[in-house]
């Protein structure tokens, strides 16, 4: 199988006056199409830095990133965002507050087009957006609501829908349920899993929730001090207990 993403010898160094620190220290990782990879690790292990390097938000010091065999290491964020989408932890970061739910969905659907062309087709897209949210009690009847009026859980659900509406080649979830209350977090995690499986998306998901890490995905890696210290496939992951996992923290 041709890998979707290949990270080769990724190093990110922070230069300090007295001491240089490798926050990514020779990371090698291959992700195949339809992989749902869960990423665990202590605070400061380098998880977000790894996602930053994949999206181009923060460039590597050395190493290479290949997407579908193409070297994207030097590509800018805008170019990569055609193929890669990301949902952050903060419900305020993914949506435009002064726009309605439908307008936000349309912007996401027409990402990559010139701005003036993006909002013209609102009316004709409404049935599709209605269908998208029809089974989601949290957003039902909210298409014309301004995003700033939504709860954190509703905004985060919208951010997730915006991230998948164009079917990204790679979906990056950066603790996207961590800021939500337990029930809302569970609902969004279940929706996430359902959509990833239905649409056969390839996904990397950072979480600190050990039970989510064990329950979801077909592969699990643990990062520590910028290195991958554990990489398990589905069968190995299924044998794990929470206390096995805790040893790595
Ligand atoms: N621009 C920067 N300058 C200096 N240090 C940085 C910079 N960016 C990240 N770091 C450091 O690099 C390390 C890795 O940070 P990163 O945010 O990737 O960790 P993380 O695994 O995502 O942590 P968390 O679970 O807390 O989100 C941390 O020690 C952080 O302080």
Overview of this protein structure:
This protein is of the alpha/beta class. It has two domains: 5-83 and 168-246, P-loop containing nucleotide triphosphate hydrolases (Rossmann fold); 92-157, no CATH class. The chain is 34% helix and 25% strand. The chain contains ten helices and ten strands. The protein has helices at residues 47-55, 77-80, 101-109, 115-118, 122-133, 152-164, 182-198, 210-215, 234-238, 242-246, and strands spanning 5-15, 20-31, 36-41, 62-67, 70-71, 84-87, 170-174, 203-206, 219-224, 227-233. A six-stranded mixed sheet has the order 6-7-8-3-9-10, sandwiched between helices. A hairpin with a 2-residue loop joins strand 4 and strand 5 (70-71). The radius of gyration is 18 Å and the shape is globular. The model has no long low-confidence stretch (mean pLDDT 92). Residues 14, 23, 41, 43-49 line the site of adenosine-5'-triphosphate. This is ATP-binding cassette domain-containing protein. One of its GO terms (molecular function) is ATP hydrolysis activity. Keywords: ATP-binding, Nucleotide-binding. Residues 5-249 form the ABC transporter domain. InterPro entries: AAA+_ATPase, ABC_transporter-like_ATP-bd, ABC_transpr_LolD-like, P-loop_NTPase.
Structure keywords:
binds adenosine-5'-triphosphate, 249 residues, ATP hydrolysis activity, alpha/beta, four-stranded antiparallel sheet, 10 helices, Rossmann fold, 2 domains, 10 strands, six-stranded mixed sheet
